[in-house]
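Worked Example 4.2. Consider the chain below.
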Amino acid sequence: MSSAIRLAVIALFAVIVPVTSSLAQAPGYVRVKFVKAGLMVGAGGGSGVLRYRGRDYPFRVSGLSVGLIAGGSVSHLEGRASGIRQVSDFAGTYSSVGAGGAFVGGVRLGNEKGVVIALRGPRAGMEFAANNGKISISLK
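Applying the procedure from the previous section yields the following C-alpha coordinates:
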Protein backbone atom coordinates (compact mmCIF):
# COMPACT_ATOMS: atom_id res chain seq x y z
CA MET A 1 0.00 0.00 0.00
CA SER A 2 2.89 2.39 0.64
CA SER A 3 4.05 2.02 -2.98
CA ALA A 4 0.60 3.13 -4.18
CA ILE A 5 0.80 6.23 -2.00
CA ARG A 6 4.32 6.92 -3.20
CA LEU A 7 3.18 6.60 -6.82
CA ALA A 8 0.22 8.94 -6.19
CA VAL A 9 2.51 11.55 -4.60
CA ILE A 10 4.94 11.39 -7.52
CA ALA A 11 2.09 11.72 -10.04
CA LEU A 12 0.64 14.69 -8.14
CA PHE A 13 4.06 16.35 -7.94
CA ALA A 14 4.56 15.88 -11.71
CA VAL A 15 1.24 17.61 -12.43
CA ILE A 16 1.75 20.50 -9.98
CA VAL A 17 5.38 21.27 -10.88
CA PRO A 18 5.67 21.11 -14.67
CA VAL A 19 9.12 20.80 -16.19
CA THR A 20 10.13 23.73 -18.39
CA SER A 21 11.08 22.67 -21.89
CA SER A 22 14.32 23.93 -23.37
CA LEU A 23 12.19 25.11 -26.31
CA ALA A 24 9.96 27.26 -24.10
CA GLN A 25 10.01 30.99 -24.67
CA ALA A 26 12.02 33.04 -22.21
CA PRO A 27 12.23 36.84 -21.97
CA GLY A 28 15.49 38.67 -22.55
CA TYR A 29 16.82 42.00 -21.29
CA VAL A 30 18.15 44.40 -23.95
CA ARG A 31 20.51 47.40 -23.76
CA VAL A 32 21.35 49.34 -26.92
CA LYS A 33 23.04 52.58 -28.04
CA PHE A 34 21.73 53.88 -31.37
CA VAL A 35 23.02 56.90 -33.30
CA LYS A 36 20.81 58.30 -36.07
CA ALA A 37 21.12 61.21 -38.51
CA GLY A 38 19.50 62.24 -41.73
CA LEU A 39 18.00 64.73 -44.10
CA MET A 40 15.19 63.14 -46.18
CA VAL A 41 16.89 59.73 -45.83
CA GLY A 42 17.97 58.68 -42.37
CA ALA A 43 20.54 56.13 -41.38
CA GLY A 44 21.65 54.87 -38.04
CA GLY A 45 23.64 52.25 -36.29
CA GLY A 46 24.76 51.06 -32.95
CA SER A 47 25.42 48.12 -30.73
CA GLY A 48 23.91 46.44 -27.74
CA VAL A 49 23.72 43.41 -25.50
CA LEU A 50 20.95 40.86 -25.13
CA ARG A 51 20.90 39.11 -21.74
CA TYR A 52 19.13 35.81 -22.30
CA ARG A 53 18.98 32.78 -19.99
CA GLY A 54 21.88 34.10 -17.91
CA ARG A 55 24.26 34.84 -20.80
CA ASP A 56 25.19 38.06 -22.63
CA TYR A 57 24.97 38.17 -26.43
CA PRO A 58 26.45 41.29 -28.10
CA PHE A 59 24.73 42.50 -31.27
CA ARG A 60 24.86 45.19 -33.95
CA VAL A 61 21.96 47.40 -34.97
CA SER A 62 21.58 49.19 -38.30
CA GLY A 63 18.67 51.01 -39.81
CA LEU A 64 17.50 52.98 -42.79
CA SER A 65 14.40 55.14 -43.04
CA VAL A 66 12.86 57.12 -45.85
CA GLY A 67 10.45 60.02 -45.42
CA LEU A 68 10.46 63.41 -43.78
CA ILE A 69 13.60 63.39 -41.60
CA ALA A 70 15.78 66.20 -40.30
CA GLY A 71 18.33 66.12 -37.51
CA GLY A 72 20.22 63.61 -35.49
CA SER A 73 20.07 61.83 -32.16
CA VAL A 74 21.84 59.42 -29.85
CA SER A 75 19.63 57.03 -27.89
CA HIS A 76 20.54 54.83 -24.92
CA LEU A 77 17.68 52.37 -24.65
CA GLU A 78 16.82 49.48 -22.34
CA GLY A 79 13.98 47.05 -22.32
CA ARG A 80 12.66 43.54 -22.69
CA ALA A 81 12.53 41.13 -25.59
CA SER A 82 9.75 38.54 -25.59
CA GLY A 83 8.91 35.63 -27.87
CA ILE A 84 12.47 34.26 -27.99
CA ARG A 85 12.62 30.45 -28.25
CA GLN A 86 16.33 30.35 -29.06
CA VAL A 87 18.91 33.14 -29.16
CA SER A 88 19.06 33.10 -32.99
CA ASP A 89 15.40 34.27 -33.04
CA PHE A 90 16.61 37.67 -31.80
CA ALA A 91 18.50 38.44 -35.03
CA GLY A 92 16.42 39.75 -37.91
CA THR A 93 14.64 42.71 -39.43
CA TYR A 94 12.40 44.68 -37.09
CA SER A 95 9.61 47.13 -37.78
CA SER A 96 7.24 49.04 -35.52
CA VAL A 97 4.39 47.08 -33.96
CA GLY A 98 1.25 48.24 -32.19
CA ALA A 99 -0.23 51.71 -32.33
CA GLY A 100 2.27 53.53 -34.49
CA GLY A 101 5.11 51.63 -32.86
CA ALA A 102 5.52 54.09 -30.03
CA PHE A 103 4.40 54.26 -26.44
CA VAL A 104 5.12 56.86 -23.77
CA GLY A 105 8.89 57.34 -23.84
CA GLY A 106 9.66 54.29 -25.93
CA VAL A 107 9.16 52.04 -28.92
CA ARG A 108 7.91 48.50 -29.67
CA LEU A 109 9.55 46.58 -32.49
CA GLY A 110 8.80 43.12 -33.87
CA ASN A 111 10.60 40.76 -36.23
CA GLU A 112 9.56 37.98 -38.59
CA LYS A 113 10.25 35.29 -35.96
CA GLY A 114 7.73 36.68 -33.49
CA VAL A 115 10.21 38.44 -31.20
CA VAL A 116 8.93 41.74 -29.79
CA ILE A 117 11.28 44.28 -28.20
CA ALA A 118 9.93 47.06 -25.96
CA LEU A 119 12.58 49.75 -25.38
CA ARG A 120 12.70 52.96 -23.35
CA GLY A 121 15.36 55.50 -22.58
CA PRO A 122 16.75 58.97 -23.05
CA ARG A 123 17.64 60.50 -26.39
CA ALA A 124 20.17 63.30 -26.89
CA GLY A 125 19.95 65.57 -29.92
CA MET A 126 17.12 66.89 -32.02
CA GLU A 127 15.24 65.05 -34.70
CA PHE A 128 12.01 65.55 -36.61
CA ALA A 129 10.79 62.42 -38.36
CA ALA A 130 7.68 61.23 -40.15
CA ASN A 131 9.00 58.19 -41.95
CA ASN A 132 8.90 54.49 -42.61
CA GLY A 133 11.91 52.43 -41.69
CA LYS A 134 13.31 49.09 -40.68
CA ILE A 135 15.99 48.10 -38.20
CA SER A 136 18.26 45.08 -38.63
CA ILE A 137 19.84 43.27 -35.69
CA SER A 138 22.71 40.83 -36.16
CA LEU A 139 24.40 38.88 -33.39
CA LYS A 140 28.18 39.38 -33.19
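Residues 2-16 form the longest helix (15 residues). The radius of gyration is 21 Å. Compare this with Example 4.1 before moving on.
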